[in-house]
């Protein structure tokens, strides 16, 4: 019987030795949307030993045009993305160990997961998480691969923790806060970015680090443009992450209280509690209240209508409130819903 990785091991730079190294590698994937699903799919099919997936979100219908591995049924039932991906990929390759967590990647997760892996992959979609991944990678000595995509434009870079700049150094020159919520995105641009990220990942975990490119690579598929920039000259010699006296501000900065953030698009508010706590969302099914309706549970997520907005409540205490564009009102609705459970 032909080995499932036969065509991969026939590729001379990999061979059976490289495949054996892939088989023992452990990769952390932060974010499992458009970038993350494609990366996870590629690495699991390549035979990665273990992949740990962390994502805070759930599947929605507008995800399906670009986010692989999800179905209309996943969107209908608001399935947590990490769980949906893990369920699918366990059917693709039973030899791969897949751990999936429905969590908001914060300092606690960075300290727990990053030191245990060989490589961190960026599948996130916001500046804050990327800075945290960057600081954690340098703090714990783990290489990581950045990727971003908006519209038809994408870019990627591998950070090998050498003398080159880190993402914090590059951030003044990059538009890290642009999102597809405002500017849209086409699926081929997603696949282009994840092809670059996944190829670099396979080089690293197979022991071919000399083949890794540390150039900042970008493209615009609509304008037929590509570029590969030597970013070495952009290094900040006083960088608090990769400089001579690092303080890792994303890891050890001032502790934040409850975070209430209006998301891109303007009609959804994300609420994150001051301290993570497990919320017994299943209790909502037994609550009778005049302004509460359409309660639905699925694993780690509860959805409901309350005071004219749609609330998505996670077991770790986070919530997304749709149909609200004011932080104060969102906080009030959030506290009211939690009070119904208590």
UniProtKB/TrEMBL annotation:
GO terms for molecular function: nucleotidyltransferase activity; sulfotransferase activity; thiosulfate-cyanide sulfurtransferase activity; ubiquitin-like modifier activating enzyme activity. One of its GO terms (cellular component) is cytosol. Residues 5-240 form the THIF-type NAD/FAD binding fold domain. SUPFAM superfamilies: Activating enzymes of the ubiquitin-like proteins. The keyword Isomerase does not apply. CDD domains: ThiF_MoeB_HesA_family. Pfam families: ThiF (PF00899). Keywords: Nucleotidyltransferase, Transferase. The keyword Chloroplast does not apply. Belongs to the HesA/MoeB/ThiF family. This is ThiF family adenylyltransferase. The lineage of its organism: Bacteria, Bacillati, Bacillota, Bacilli, Bacillales.
